[in-house]
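We store sequence with structure; for instance:
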Amino acid sequence: MWDVLVAGGGNAALCAAIAARRAGRSVLVVEAAPKFYRGGNTRHTRNMRCAHDAATDTLSGPYPEEEFYDDLLRVTQGNTTPELARMMIAESKPMLDWIQAQGVRFQPSLGGTLSLGRTNSFFLGGGRSMLNALYRTAESLGVEVRYEAEVTGLDLDGPRFRAATVRQDGEDRRIEAKAFVAACGGFESNFDWLKEGWGERAENFLIRGTPYNRGTVTRMLIEQGVMQIGDPTQCHAVAIDARAPRYDGGIITRLDCVVFGIVVNAHAQRFYDEGEDIWPKRYAIWGRLVADQPGQIAWIVFDAPNLEKFMPSLFPAISAPTIPELAQKLGLDPATLEATVSEFNAAVVGGKPFDHTDLDGNRTQGLAIEKTNWAQRIETAPFYAYPVRPGITFTYLGVKVDERARMTMADGTPSDNLFAAGEIMAGNVLGQGYAAGIGMTIGAVFGRIAGTEAAHV
């Protein structure tokens, strides 16, 4: 019998495994993906958001706990569990040092359109490098990892975990453990489940990360009496290049250029304020916004001076010398798009220096949907556009946990040997909305707690 069985292979799972192993417990990690694809969405991440009291070698200034909490309240519109959110933020402060002690390295703070140099620490080499560092540490400590090992069954005795059925090499094996940590992601790759909340619109969604996050363990836990939390339609959904593959396009398909132009739907009409807030705090609303448009597609339209002001997609922008010609390339009505751009241009007040890192107050006046910041006329040829669709990173429906990362049963009692960390319990903190880097914070903080607590069972 193992002391701790961890399901999953990403940031949350590895933090749990390392914490439990450092406490002297035997730990087995079962990862459903092949070794090359190990780590779920951690492979595609770049940074994590942690509170800190002062500037460091890799962060340009302090990020107090209260500011972090205010940012979380703003993006979730208060749809969070305050006690867990505040605990997570407090525990994020020592996490920067702890995770570096596990071999992870950060790079100097970044500028550009991300505006995250003060709040977020960026992994040197990106998410895969960070993940590889955690695996090296885990394996050097004696954690055993099995790949292409999917949990297909759970044996629970009421609130207590007894064993899991794990399928590997075509065979089902029963694995008993004193404690179980579920850190195996959301259900974003399960289109049947997505359709339960979104309907047929989900067919036009693209999955930014792994095709292996199908929510199998989540469903089993809920069916066996663990309390469900979250809305099936709430998720981390951003606007990504519509030409991206259905799965695993990752960060290189994301577009950060909404603030530099306008966004139109299939009717060539704007449908939301492109200048509502600083990009890292509001970028994750655009996946949901596009999901509500006809055909679940939209286009970001801008002009020549803005082409090199943001990180481009893997795919080149579509260009044309005039707006009507651009519309033809996009499959939009030329007259309507030209009218939309002309109306927008005529409404731009502007007058202040353009500053994408701050709310600059350059706005439109007189439109049904105003652009409240960063409004610039789209008037200098050539003109450009990117097609975008909803890109789902991870879902928020999952299992309820307490401050010790213990799963809560449907009757409200905590289990003493069932724990959860990462996307599978993210809905406890993220009822809706998203702020850049917070998914990694949830995974690392609750992963460390889950592993520590599981070691004491």
